[in-house]
Amino acid sequence: MKKAIIILPTFNEAGTIEKLIVNILAQNKKVPNWDIDVLINDSSSTDDTAKIVKTLQKKYSNKIYLLETKKEGLGKAYHQAFVYAIENIQPFVIIQMDADFSHNPNDIPLFLDKIAKGADIVIGARYIKGGSIPSNWRVHRKILSILANLTIRLGFMKLNIHEWTNGYRAIKIWLIKDALEHIKNYSGYVFQIAMLDYAIKKGAKIAEIPNNFIDRKYGKSKIFVSQYIFQIFLYLFTYSSFIKFVIVGLIGFGIDFGISYLGIQKLHQAVWLITLLSTETAIISNFFLNNFWSFSHKKIEGGVGNYLVSFLKFNFVSSGSIAIQTVGLQILVGIFGRKLWYLYKILIIAFVIIPYSYILYNKFIWKQK
Ligand SMILES: Nc1nc2c(ncn2[C@@H]2O[C@H](COP(=O)(O)OP(=O)(O)OP(=O)(O)O)[C@@H](O)[C@H]2O)c(=O)[nH]1
Ligand SMILES: [Mg+2]
């Protein structure tokens, strides 16, 4: 029998906590191979949440754990609960869940089933077939939720993951242990994104199951939207390989253009020589910036030999970009005329060069470890 701990962070959830805990513990009947306990981290609720939990603890001996902490944000509350579970309970898996009944406890067996089948982390996804957000949410809330997820998906260029912000997840304890150092820096809601980003970079096996998010009926929302949006962008700019890769590309373009301008316009040198010099300088700068910044979590290792091989591959991929641009632009100008050549160039870079090089870099140069 394997142990699963359902973690419920609470702040003023007296309206739902009892019914929710009873419902969660009742799931034990449905999963003979699992032993489900509940761990509540109550961050100084001003209502009766903690008192209700303490009363329930007497009724369900050893099945309910209660932590009482200061209010320091959702991420912090989860971090405290993870540390407690690791040190005192040693479960096989933890399940994160909101305590306002937005997450249906009847889905717990589905999460555990995916874990039993080999997933390291299972995401309750609202934006896949069979999942949903509440139909009674106001339009701005719907838009905000959809846009936030889309921005993160595109920002990380992880199109096969459809849900980043929902807090209904099952995570194996080894992955939590591994991630503790990273996620402890994120005390707010953005911790959900940090955790999933870490799991992906670790090469964890990720599964999604449809989740129908239910609007809360009791109590108040604790989310502080503008702060959350700011944290999402800050996280993306700090950790997205894709965004950094695009920035590196722009720097490369600047270097190429700067040297060409100086050599051709100011110093009147041979065009072929300056072009060779400017493109190769940009390629070298791109290679090192990508290695030590954009893909620093997959840095090339193994000495000078490996560097040289990777650098040659990088030159090869970059030559491909130059060839695609030259031929592509020639074709478009041939069909539509020269007037809007810069627009064609931008389109080719955005829709062909960027995906082409990003995919090839990830496949051949900075491979997943
Ligand atoms: N311990 C603890 N729990 C928190 C904190 N902030 C939020 N929570 C809990 O985290 C869960 C999710 O918070 P919600 O306010 O429901 O956020 P949401 O689900 O995004 O938004 P709504 O459902 O619209 O309220 C709930 O169980 C909250 O009680 C906190 O600082 N500490
Ligand atoms: Mg909620």
UniProtKB/TrEMBL annotation:
Alphabetized GO MF terms: dolichyl-phosphate beta-D-mannosyltransferase activity
Transmembrane domains' residue ranges: 232-264, 270-293, 314-336, 342-361
Highest taxon, organism lineage: Bacteria
Family matches, as Pfam families: Glycos_transf_2, GtrA_DPMS_TM
GO cellular component, one term: membrane
Domain Glycosyltransferase 2-like positions: 6-149
Keyword check for Electron transport: no
Localization: Membrane
UniProt record, GO biological process: glycolipid biosynthetic process; polysaccharide biosynthetic process
Matching InterPro entries: DPM1-like, Glyco_trans_2-like, GtrA_DPMS_TM, Nucleotide-diphossugar_trans
Domain GtrA/DPMS transmembrane, chain residue ranges per copy: 244-366
Record bears the keyword Cytoplasm: no
Lipid bilayer topology: Multi-pass membrane protein
Keywords, ordered alphabetically: Glycosyltransferase, Membrane, Transferase, Transmembrane, Transmembrane helix
Record-stated family: Belongs to the glycosyltransferase 2 family.
Protein name, entry field: Dolichyl-phosphate beta-D-mannosyltransferase
Source organism: Candidatus Roizmanbacteria bacterium CG11_big_fil_rev_8_21_14_0_20_35_14
